[in-house]
Amino acid sequence: MLDLVNLSRLHFAVVTVYHFLFVPLTLGLSIFVAIFETLAFVKKDDGWQKLAAFFGQLFLINFAVGVVTGLVQEFQFGMNWSSYSRFVGDIFGAPLAIEALAAFFLESTFLGIWVFGRHKLSPKVHVASIWMVAIASNLSAFWILVANSFMQNPRGFAIVNGKAHMTSFLALITNPKVFYEFPHVIFAGLTTAAVFIMGVSAYRIYKKQNPELFLRTLSFSTVAALISLIAVTIIGDLQSKYLIKIQPMKMAAAEAIWETEQPASLSVFAIVDGKAYRNHINITVPKMLSFMSYSNFTGSFPGINELQAEAVQRFGPGNYIPPVALIYWCFRIMVAGGAVLIIATFIVMWFMRKKNILTNPWLLRGIIALIPIPYICNSTGWIMAEVGRQPWIVYNILLVKDGVSRSNTPAMVLTTLIGFAVVYGILACIDGYLLITFARKEIKEGAQ
User: Residue 168: helix, strand or coil by DSSP?
Assistant: First the structure.
């Protein structure tokens, strides 16, 4: 039903998911470009300098589109979610202001210094400038996640006159949720960038465009991708165990467990019926979910129906169950994508060890085909994280339906949704065209 609340949610989802397509690559690629610049400086190697300039161009394109979509994201809060903005304004003001002033401005300033200062600054200062870009980019993510973690696990606040007021800035920034989310996002960004570099490098090798040069980045990014994937997996596992404690409904939905189980079985494949509160088909591994959640085979895993009853008793009548099928499959798509990437990086490393990758066009095409997978994993992971706390916009504090702008009408939100979808579609085409064009571009001496 496309009422005001659902249209506003859909509007926010389109803007957020589209913006998040660019964020992980910006975070990860900034670090890789900084590493390439450092290798060029330390080794006095013109090859690494060319590679830094080449991938720097791709970083700039991605960064530019990310900034535009990020600004629109900020306007969303006032346009469609003014009630929510008034509720959390006292808390969100500090981290978002710090993100804009101390992180985004810092990032933009040093990005300009790096772009225009190559032949005007000393090599040390030039290398330092791109490292400042990388640090500021990832610092920016930290402050955004501080705000998001409050929505997932409210800390350091008190409700005064119907609004959330900050009582402890330290509690806000030391929210345990931040220390699971932040490294998870950073390593997801490194994975996205590493796979992107792998794909672009494989394409250049396949087309016989500076193959020996791009063999360096293919080798480097493959190892980096594997390390990042392992880190993402470990942190993701730790985060899942933490979510069982603070957001049990989200994790119950991710496993489509309707009734409490002890021991709990891990669902491999299920046809979820959210209306009937059951699974029509459910292929499971006995006791495995208990082991993964509690490191033993006897742990009890709370079911959706029990958690719903507890929520009704605590908060009053209502449906506190998120869209189970969507969360269930988003979780599995994310995990499956990560597994494919881990296997793929091992295969690439094996072929590189055999030193026959340059003459293996099928493998090179396969590497190119990996590029979309991290984007799919990032999007499905983000959808699970945000949709999984429904119907709460601030978990256990503020319902989504109470956060929308009541001055809007469904027609107004639908009109802007269509407008954004069209504009974003055009931007996607432009971004794709520019990335492909620059990925094919001939490397020139000192080009940037």
Answer: coil
